[in-house]
Design goal:
single chain; BirA Bifunctional Protein, domain 2; 14 strands; about 325 residues; five-stranded antiparallel sheet
Length: about 325
């Protein structure tokens, strides 16, 4: 680690507390002047570091600069060794994760997990070919690269697991109660705060999945007026968190890493159903032959949505649905 990385690790570990320059210099075996220079460099990079005479340096509680050290600090020991890549700007964290896999990340490092986080995406990817609005400083844009080495069918519940991981993390660090709009968008009330895009790298001849990439975008503090006009009726932000984005990213990763070990557990689908935004509600969806509508009545063990229509029960295994409040007249 560089001096700056070691310094930010110490300050993150003591966030909100003062650490004397002498203590830091001793811990890192450098001069106090070197510590001072490193502090100045970190300030220029956007870290809010306060200096109080006779007390030392403090990483302000409102400092929200993303860093590898800040994320790793909050990961449980069993996942401390995962690869972590933090970027101030990237085209897409999913695309970056794909490049890692293509360049031999698993083989070169011997690791089975990687986490990519960015402060801003210039070409964030959403489902169905859409883009994901990703302004700087106000959101969480992360991708998890997971070595699978199992049948594609066995790993399909990873999308369900990702939406549950986000819901759990939001509940841990806010006053909100998130719900899941099938398939995997996370909503607060009647607006979307998180989108999830899962992509796979596999061998379709033998049905094996080599790696999965789970992209997660969460609107943390994005102002409503800053969303593109087309998104304003449906997009929202959490508003505030009781923790830094570093800690939130670590918690989402922790939850998802743990859930990947339980993908075949019936409890996974039970929790997913309990958090559903669509069950019991009238929905509509588009088909090649036109728009259809019905009432969402169940989610089966494969994660497919069961819809009651005038023609009988329809099972949706992909696509996107829209919600119509039950008390509105039919279109």
């Amino acid at each position: 680690m560089s001096l700056k990385q070691e310094l930010i690790r110490i300050l993150e570990e003591n966030r909100g507390l003062s650490v004397s320059g002498e203590e830091i210099a001793g811990a890192l075996s450098v001069s106090r002047a070197a510590v001072w220079k490193a502090v100045q460099a970190l300030r220029q990079e956007g870290y809010h570091i306060e200096a109080v005479k006779n007390r030392g340096y403090t990483l302000s509680g409102d400092s929200d600069r993303l860093s590898e050290e800040g994320i790793r600090l909050h990961l449980p020991e069993r996942w401390q060794d995962c690869g972590i890549y933090v970027l101030q700007e990237v085209d897409s964290t999913n695309t970056f994760a794909k490049r890692l896999a293509a360049e031999g990340f698993f083989e070169k490092t011997g690791k089975a997990l990687a986490l990519v986080a960015a402060n801003r995406q210039t070409a964030g990817k959403g489902r169905l070919g859409r883009s994901f609005y990703s302004p700087a400083d106000t959101g969480i844009y992360m991708s998890l690269l997971l070595r699978a080495d199992r049948r594609i069918a066995d790993f399909l519940p990873i999308t369900v697991a990702a939406s549950l991981a986000v819901c759990r993390a939001i509940e841990d660090f806010s006053q909100e109660t998130p719900r899941i709009k099938w398939v995997n968008d996370v909503w607060l009330g009647d607006r979307k705060v998180c989108g999830i895009l899962t992509e796979g790298i596999g061998n379709f001849e033998n049905g094996m999945l080599e790696a999965a990439i789970v992209g997660i975008g969460i609107n943390v503090s994005t102002a409503e007026e800053s969303f593109p006009e087309a998104l304003r009726p449906v997009a929202a932000s959490l508003g505030s968190l009781r923790v830094s984005r570093n800690e939130m990213i670590a918690r989402v990763a922790e939850e998802l890493f743990a859930l990947t070990e339980q993908l075949q557990s019936p409890a996974l689908m039970e929790e997913y159903r309990s958090r559903s935004l669509v069950l019991g509600r009238e929905i509509w969806w588009n088909t090649p032959s036109g728009r259809r509508q019905g009432k969402a009545v169940g989610i089966n063990d494969a994660g497919n949505l069961e819809v009651e229509t005038p023609e009988g029960l329809t099972v949706l295994n992909s696509g996107e649905v829209s919600i119509r409040p039950l008390d509105l007249p039919e279109a």
